[in-house]
Amino acid sequence: MVAFLCLGLSFLIALVTAGGVKNCHSKCRCEVESYGLFDSFSLTKVDCSGLGPGTTPIPIPLDTSHLDLSHNSISYITDSMLSGPGYTTLVSLDLSKNLISRVSAKAFNKLRYLETLDLSQNILENLSDGCFSGLPLAEVDLSDNKFQEFDLNVFTTRGQEIPISIDLSNNLLNAVSRKLPSHALYIKSLMLAGNQLRTVPRLAGIPLQHLNLDGNLIHSIDEGDFEELTDLISLSLSGLPELSIIHRNSFKGLKNLQVLDLSNNFQLKALSPDVFNGLSALQELNLSKSVVTPLPVIIFNHMPSIKSVTLGPNMHCWKTHKQGQFHRQIGQAKANDILTCDVPGIVM
């Protein structure tokens, strides 16, 4: 009897993990995950990667939440490809590492619960207006495609205030814009690393918190480049091969910025203290392999909240609070901020 039960249990497990789930394609791998009190409901993760060309559309279980269609040589996402039974419950869709060059304007219309979409490592050059309209997207990966220009209005929420993270790194971008800023754009994070941008893109009106411009062809940072990005928390400008100057007040207005990465900018030889005007909330600054030392200590007067500065692989400065001498007239001890560096002589 025990042997029979064990055999039955093994059979059930095999059904779930090896494609025995109802409506699971014979070449896909389906895995059921149960949730709730007493496992009262379940969702299915479906892996249909690497099946080869000509396999879509693929029938999937009705309760599918995650679908992997990567490595399938798909070239075109049509209106009907993602509209069958089971697709309407998708929360996550992976279409990476295909040959996708076109996406129909209504290809994602049925995916009303879709939060994560991966279209990376394809050959996309443009997207149709409104192709993401009405979707509750939280993450979209468009990295490693062929975009040269990109209009961020494709992510217009039209009344849905869902913050979204977008990865457009490693494309061929020379322009990122908003052509019709009539609707709200709730973009939280924007990755633009590894493109061909020569100036800082104008992103006014977008409540960005994280912006990455690493590895672009920007030759100078000018006053006003970031003045309207008041919600920005982290900004990365690392590895810009042509960056040679950052003008005074370039970061003015970034009152909430906490992390600034200016590392690996080999053409950047000097920084005026006024470059850091307005960075009252900045806590971490990375200048590794970017600026000759020593640095004038006055540079830190513009950054009252600074906690850590990196100037090289083994060159760090940090601020500590040192309790001062007790004053009888004031009735309390005054705390002093002490700047300490692990290599002497890098701050004068």
Would you mind describing this structure in some detail?
Residues 1-18 form the signal peptide. It comes from Bagarius yarrelli (Goonch). This is Tsukushin. Keywords: Leucine-rich repeat, Repeat, Signal. It holds the Pfam family LRR_8. The protein has 348 residues and is mostly beta strands. The chain has a domain at 253-348. It is built from 1 helix and 21 strands. It has a 15-stranded mixed sheet with strand order 1-2-3-5-7-8-10-12-13-15-17-18-19-20-21, with no helix packed on it. Strands 4-6 form a two-stranded parallel sheet. The chain starts with a helix and ends in a 7-residue tail after the last strand. Residues 1-19 and 330-335 have low confidence and may be disordered.
